[in-house]
Amino acid sequence: MPDVEDNIIDSDDDDLATFTFQGAARHGDQDEPRPFDLADVPASVEAEDALPQSEIFESLFMSQDGLRPVGRTWEQTKVQPVSLSTLARTFKKGDKATAINLLHRRSVLRFDDDLYYDNNDEMLAWDASQHFLDFCLVVGGSIGLDALLPNKVVDHTFSIALNLCLPTRLFGPKFGKLGFDPTGCMMALGTGPSSELWLAFCPRENLEDIDVANDVSLLSERRHGDTRLSSSHFRMAVMFLAYALSKNPNLAIYVMHDYGTDDDLCAWRIKDVTNIYSQTTWNLRLTDLQALHNTIASEWDRWVANAPRSWKLDGWLLSRAPVAVGCRYGQNQPIANSNDNAHVLEAKNWHAERSYTNIRYVSVAIATDITYVLSYFLHSVLPVAFPLELTVWTLRCLRVKRWSEVSNEDIILQHGVVYDSPDPHIREEVDLDLLPHRDPVTCRENNVYDEDGRRIPRLHGKTRRNAKPCGLLVNLESISELFSSYIPDHGDTAMDYDAYAGEQSSPSVSVYPQAFLRTMGHIQCDAVLPHFGSFISDIRRATSRRPRMVDMDDDQPLPDEYDLFGETVDGIDGVPPVLIPSACQFYNEISHRIRPSAALHDVQQGRITSALAGAYGNAATKPTHNTRVRECKMSLPHQKYDNKIGLDDVPRALRLENIYIIQCDSLKPEKRNGMSIYKDIIVPLARAWSHPNIFQVLRPHICVFASHAFPQVYQWTSFGITSLLERLWSHQLPILEAGNKPRHEVVELCSVLERTLAYAHTGNARVLATKLMRPLWLVQSLLEQGLPTFAPSVRTTTAINNPIAISAADWPTLDNMNVPAIASKRSQILTYGNDHFEAYKAGFHIELSINKLSPHVFLQYSTPERHCIVIALVALRSYIADVKTLVATAIKKACSSDASDMDLDAGGPSRHKERLKSLQKWLACDHPLGYKDKAYEHLLRCIVVDPNDFSDGLPNVCNEKLSVQDFAARICSMTRTESPSLVAAPLILTAPSTAVLRMAYARMLKYVPANSPAAAEKFIQRSYIIAANNLQIQHIPWHASTTAGKGRPSRKAVHNSWVNLGKSSVLDHSSSTVGRPNSRPIDMAAEAAKKAQASDARAPWAVESITLQSLPDFFTRDCLPDEFSLENVECSGDAMLTEIYEWVFTNFDRDNPVHKIALLAGIYFSHVLPDMFWDAKDKPSNQQMHGERAATNAVRAMPWKPNKGTRKGSTWRSQFIAMVPAYIISVYERDSPLRLYFAKKKAFPSQWNAKNSAKGIGSFNLVRMGLARARSTRIFKGGIPLTDWILLTNEELAVKHRELMGLLQDHQYGPFKIAVSFFGLDKAVELGATTGTYTNHPAMTSIALKKRPAPAPDSDSEVEIIEHAQQKRQRQ
Questions:
Q1: Could you tell me which of 589, 593, 586 has the C-alpha nearest to residue 699?
Q2: Can you say whether the dihedral through the CA atoms of 1009, 1010, 1012, 1017 is positive or negative?
Q3: What is the pLDDT confidence band of residue 923, given thresholds at 50, 70 and 90?
Q4: How many CA atoms lie within 13 Å of 617's alpha carbon, on the beta-carbon side?
Q5: 1341, 1347 in Cβ contact below 8 A?
């Protein structure tokens, strides 16, 4: 047997989960049993961009205005009704062409009378007599295996299979109560009689203090973390269990060393010190299990006390105790049988199943089947004995042919006294001879009731022997009304709200439409119906113990249930409720046949999609791909479903399932046994459904389908989708068999079809990939009308050849880079791995970019260049993803070793956690190979082991930098189609990106110059350079250092060797932002990141993080400041504003003088905030502003002051760095949307003026900064564009550009002189005092008081004022 330790989780840190793919296969989807949960879907079809389930419920009532706009085409498409009988005929005839054509119509379903019945139909009989146990969770209340032990002394049939080889199994229940958080403390032990066995390592505080346990949330109320034990904790648990089992002389288990051969858990293997893993499972008899329980209870504390000190360092072992948990779900076992003998026998079975003395919580899901048995009245109907006398008691539905009366004598003989009402407060005894069977006016039955308030049927229905029950679903539009506040008719019947819910919030109802019916389906709620309140209160009163109030001054002996020495005395809140209702779900019983769990539903697997996508795999994934193809060749998923429902007697009842928690510590001592729990709690709860108080209000919310329409309605409504799937598969199968690949669009459309079909069968919003399915109209149609509708862009044909297609130009994309919307991601990753999907996605993006070039990006380049740049971007994104995988894999492996393997000086286990947390943050960065969002710092912290080495930066074995040109040249050299060089660093040989880069090179050849290969490669290199700058690739992985050993030096890219791409560094001026501290910095990683960024000529930068004095060092860099981004402009959804700003940021050109001036002006403007307005008192008279020169000079001389009523956002610097340049560029560029608008309207858009003027951005400040000229006094009110103020000429702009760029060369006084150019002398001096800018103006009275000595060369002093004394004396 392989060593189980090879399968144990690699690390004992929960943080490891943060860098595994979120859609990774959930353990147990295929092999492990899971609770039946309407909300569950397989991971393979769970969309990352799914709708919240609540949106489906809201769509039933809300107008569709709140949905994302989808254009007028959808709104203007005519809605046409289609009858269910039409769909049925289409399916029965096999008319696939008609079914497919219906997918292009907006259709609303209409129901035929012979297929759908009114729930008040007098010929329908109901049956609610069948009850089932669908889930049971038992939690022990003390150390040991109490939850697993039967209440028997001996039982030769009892046996459990103990299996300690399940370290990765997750604890599955989503409902119930444990009394502690299961995160990191659940260990699977194997299986017992129809149940799963678990050992929970419960916090001692929760085990010893019942109040602490009771305060823990229910499993359904709070989401917990990974329940599995960490690798080290699992090893400890196995060693203890091996020790405990070795104490049993009847078992051939031994332990040579109780705690292994070394304190280091990783220094030895479990199978080297014990034979516990000599076989996979150990069958334990009842006596063996009892002996194991006794050993655990008696030896745990001693074993922990003697454990090695290193085992206890994290405190887990000392703070935990093993408690057994038993779990059964999906067993669908009948309970609460109406037969008296069966009832007694069942109670005995519950009693013998276990002793409840040391059981703390029992959580159960009690299900009742409501079936239409075509009787007259809606309430409980008696069981029927064929030939067919139907007695109305169960909630099944059969359509009866006629009714016969039950004699009054038979009723009196069986029930004695009968009443006219179920309410004991108002009912009166009835003389049946005076009460006819039917009301003479309505012809409905005159109901009578027994002593317990249950209806006594007075009519029997007769039907055929082979009659089948009707199919039942829930009315989703009205069902939520039942969960609103319930007001009983009498105070005595009021429910105990503490027992019912204990919460003030309204119950949350989730709806799951079935068969595209939209308003009919299944529901799930986090509460039970409030009408159960009185039944719950009755149970509480009958079973709850008295409060434990101990009077220490009373000498009377205490009853046994009181423990004077324990902490069992009840607090001020009294006895905790015996019974807590947790949740409920209503669904059709056929779900248990077609999907016993979410993972086993045939149409929810995405099998066809994975069979198609597997063609893009490699040799490693080919066996899996062949398996998927073979499965689909045998039969398609929906065909397997058709086979399952082909039986005549498929279940059709509506199953009503309530989940309750029984708190055993609150039971009376005499009631704390299985027999009482069954008789006094389980049976009353199960039979409550048939009580008139509940069923009367439930019936109006039930939808009834004829037996020949259900479950066939699933096939009828989805026939168009399944027809397309069949034709698509028939077309693609020969392509797969020929070894070719289907088009990416085909794979995605197949995924869309499978997801749509999965929604028909589950109604779960998590299968809807909205980013792709919404533009195709599927989301809107499923929510608004039920039946699916395709957008006109999706072309379907009746021919088998290419049955469904969509052009590349119409394919939905996610951003300006035309990233394709993809629906098959989950299916591909879980089937073939993340590497497979990344290569597939990149290939799809490249192919789409060739056929659909985005009109919004890289407009300054030619069309061939734009194509190549986009392709290069896609390829480099794939490369970045592989670098992230390279680093994550290596760091995970390095941190998976035990802390004792590390040098204690390096931080031990805490250093592991720090590295993993830094890795998590680095992986979350948008540009992980750059500096933005502290990406470099996070990478440094996870790569470098010893914090003392942070100051050296990332490991760099070559001790030099490369240029981005070198990076591009290496990519081209290794991926060219002819004579490529060997793959080496920085590329990763086995990574998907290498294949993607080869594909990209081949595709780019289509657009390169054809005159020479050298020119073509230069063209491609330039594309990679532009793409690398766009993605902020500043450093790349490199190969390990060359050794003097034998053999060829390794050129393989590794995670712990890096090279920087900023080959040309900036001179280190005295004003540089990288300080020269006299002492060692506290945070060396942060300082190293700043140093690396400052010395990197290509590194991004932010105005907020530098001073104006250091601006010359950064302004000439290749990249723009981070603040200059569309993200910093709020367009409020205005189309005109969005178009203007998008044009500016897309077409910004660093080589354009106007653009450079505008950016510089925006940076400086952001530093005078909020002083960007003027005071009317400073305005000169109109007589002083005659002429263009006078008006311009007057404006430029206006003092810069804040607005008295400062507007919101007037101090947000990032916004102005984006908006001011955008305003200047839009005004100057004749091709901008603003100037094009002006050419037509002779004015700027009103929303443009309003947005900018509110922030002081406009013509006035344009003139005041010297970037325009005023022509009249109307400039003070804004003026008419290009009339009351005019722009600078090209010659004037050239002069301005040379002046400003020249000043940037003066690193000491240039920043101050630029401020003088923009704002005038006074404001520039003030700005120098507040921003740390050197000034060189002769001494002035306005600054004399602020004078101070010049700073030292390494000082960060804010202002230096230099007086020219010699010039003063000369003037004197």
A1: 586
A2: positive
A3: very high
A4: 22
A5: no
